Every structure is written in structure tokens, then in C-alpha cells.
Amino acid sequence: MKRILLMTDFSENANNAIDYAVKLYKDVVCEFYILHTYMPTNIGGESMMMNFPLVYLHEIEKKEVEKKLQKTKNRLKEEYQNANHLFFTIASFNLLISGINEAVDKNTIDLIIMGTKGATGAKEIFIGTNTMDAIKNIKIPLLVVPDDFEYEKPKEILFPTDYEVSKTNKHLSLIKEISKEYSSKIHILKAYENSPLEEKQKEIKVFLDAYFKENAHTFYVSKGQKVIAAIEIFEMKYKVNLLVMLYNKHTLLENLLFKPIINQMVYHTKVPFLVLPSEEIIES
Question: Which residues contact residue 130 at a Cβ distance below 8 angstroms, ignoring those fewer than 6 apart?
């Protein structure tokens, strides 16, 4: 059984991501946990237990959140009527990341699915913040669904990589699972501007070839292009339905000098984007 955490703020964007999740796993036995985190804006420095009006406000907000969660749960049960699926709701009086981590630990979550909006120009500093915080602080796979994306079977999976992949990363299996479920083809893309593969990277390429031996897969090299440009061109050429990338931590210097690739893809991807944590992230 797969346990999936569905994030919601009750927006159309969140509902779209939830619907994508239910459709993607329609033939898989799943427990879906629908989570909404909230922090009443009126709570100040005084202790809640000493401030009865604020406690009362909190109870009112909690009941309203639970009512909305139940409405979402009822909609999914009635609309999809899937015997493979069970739905649970979580109203978490908590900060976003703390609420997610608590739900993940308590319910042994395998995957988180949430929606995000695209952005251009200066809006990038405001849009996608919650998504980026989740990617940077959560240690399990996260599937991001762009706003207004209409469900498509993930028949063409794009996996851009620098071949800096650990052979023992357990989350690589998620790519295999989706590919097997939908008879998908995995396109493994290496893009570089100047430097060709080093010996260690060649070794990882051989490993990936063997790892995905039961899945249709092809290797590609895009020379003289930046990763983002190579991905965008590839998405258009092959009608990619799912983008997968491995997330590695960046040093402070790298974050100051360069925009990490993952950040850019969260803001600009037009297809669902699966982020797998590296072992460095998992073990930190």
C-alpha cells in the first residue's frame, strides 16, 4: 500500500493537484492524507492558554478547516468512487514544514503531492515559496503539479541528470514504478556546455542502464546547452508528461552566485515535476 500526502489550501490549484494524484494512482491501493496547515493571524506574544479569546478564535478556525477538509474528502469519494483509495484528513495547527514533517512521520508517508504556480520576472521571489521550502526541507519524494495542468498519463518521462547519483538511493525506484504502471519510456538526459563525462559519471550511466533494464529507456546528450534550455527543448520535441530530477544541497556560495536548477524548474515547468531527495538530503 502506498501512503500519499496531499497538500491543500482549498484553492483550485490545490484541487487540481489532488485530482492529478488520484488519477495517477487510480489502479494502486493507496491511503491519501489530505493536509491543511494553518496559523491564526491574531495570535501574539501572550500564551494561548492565558488568552481565552484567542483560544476561542483558534477553535473556530479549526472547525472551519475541518469542515473544508471533510468537503474535499467527500468530493473525492463521490467523484471517483475508487475502492483502491482511502482518504483521511489532517487539520494541523502548525507551520507548513513542521506540519508536513509531523504528518510524514506519523503516517509513514511515501510521497507528497502539491500544486504550484508558474512565475515570470520579479514574481519569482513571491510565487512558489512554499514549494521551494518543501523541496529544501522534506526528505521524501515530492511531486509538484503546475497550475491548470490537465491530467495526462505519464507515458514520456524526462530524467535530466549530471550522473551524480548514488546507487543506493532508494527513491529511484519511484521512477521505475511509474514507468512500469504506464509502460512509460524514460528519457535520461545529460546536458553540458563544456565538460564531457568523467569516469565516475560513466560508471553511473552504466548503473542506470542496468537499473532501468526492465523499463524502456534511452540516453541523450545535449552538448553546448544549459540544462534549463535543454530540458525545455526536449519537453517540446518529445511531448514529455513527467519531469524527474534529483535534489542535491547547494553550498551558500553556489546559492549566492547561481540559481539552482531545481529552483528554476519549480517556477517554469509546464508538466508535473517529481523531485527525489539525494542521499545527502535524506541523511542530513
Answer: 96, 114, 116
